[in-house]
Amino acid sequence: MSNLKSCTWRSITLGAIALGGLLAAPLAAIAAEPTTTPTFTKDVAPIFQAKCEACHRADSIAPMSLVTFEETRPFASAIKARVASRQMPPWHIDKTIGIQKFKNDRSLTDDQIDTVVRWVNAGAPKGDPKDMPAAVKWPNEQVWNFAPLFGQTEPDLIIRSTPYLQKAGAQDAWWKPSVELGLTEPRWVRAIEIRPSTVQGRKVVHHAIANLRQDESLAPANVRDPDAATGAAAAQPGAGGTFMEWAVGKQGEIMRPNSGKLLLPGARITWDIHYSDGKEDVTSVVELGIYLYPKGQEPKYRQQLALWGAGGIDIAPGEVKVTQGFRAMQSAGRVESMQPHMHLRGKAMMLEAITPDGRKQVLSYVNDFNFNWHNSYVYADDVAPLLPKGTILVVTAWHDNTTAKKSNPDPTQWVGYGDRTVDEMAHAWINITYMSDADFQAEVDARKAATTTQQQQQ
Ligand code: HEC
User: Which of 158, 287, 291, 439 is an S-S bond match for 191, by CB 3.0 to 4.6 Å?
Assistant: First the structure.
């Protein structure tokens, strides 16, 4: 399947280059064609430092290190296959439609893919050792990296999952303990960090999601979720209240200025930890560090992560099925991020907005969903969609219950909604900062002014 995909991608790219050449300036296109062979030290290492080492280095989550030439060379052909098909780095947004500027984009540019592919095609040469860039100094992941930013030695709250023993050679497991935060009053969160508590644990924790469960009716009225009545609880059987989600592979999140997440009395974290690849027995705990705004310095805006999409799912054996959910925003807001959630048969998901003036726009399209990767796509500050009250968010999910879907455990089964990995879901986690109509208008005006200034400078 990966070969097929890489062929498709390459022929599309080649087609586009050929077409551009014909229509525009064939000579310029030929002149721009690079003549030198890329080498590891000069051309490839800088790309891998920027886009792969975060996971592919000693003691991190990926199966092998891609730091030195010697470590990398044996994987050259696997690297070409995964890179050309855009399966690595894991980032599954369609590049041709929707918003393209993200805070956490880890994908490769077309040029970078081209460099890696040409390097492998040329026999993956090492190049001159003098060209090798200085090694990246990775932050020590066994310390709390945000603490110094707030003048602290550790987070205000540290929530730990209960220990789990992943045996050597064991199959993938999902561990879901629920842990109380111990709060008796509402508190505002300004940053979050998450990490397996040991280096050994890092090797078996594929991802960890911290879901926040709390009773929304305990929120102060001025910041209560305007969509709560129509939201998660109404749309999803089995889902209660508001959640917070976190996945390893990114270090943490600092909230936007003057905004935060609100924790309510009695709140709990329900973990969803994916343990994989047990080469030795490892007992692991995952830690969530929460930094709070000091009392009296509460932010103005609340960021709200909620579930948008469809609950009813009905997929026949051997069927590719489209499921759609839509709901109106009860207040104006800025969409900060989106994260598709489907299971093994999930194929693609689109998020669209229909504004009250009748305009419809695609915000994001994840065209190659992969259950192994729970990516949250965080929009950059100057493009995060500002949407007026009454905007309808449309979540469209495609499931592939055929043999074409590699991860499909059994195409002869009927599939419905459910918690098990072999059941399905069809929703997105969407993080929205809600605001009054007046604040919304001010945000829209500020963005217009910034865009105009930029255009004048060009
Ligand atoms: C967010 C973490 C992450 C990033 C970033 C990342 N990888 Fe990976 N990679 C993984 C994990 C985990 C696996 C094993 C599980 C899987 O295949 O999904 C993997 C698997 C692979 C494999 C398959 C290994 C095999 O045994 O065949 C290749 C090749 C690969 N990555 C190359 C790359 C390259 C090249 C980059 C950068 C351009 C990159 N990856 C970026 C986490 C990452």
Answer: 291
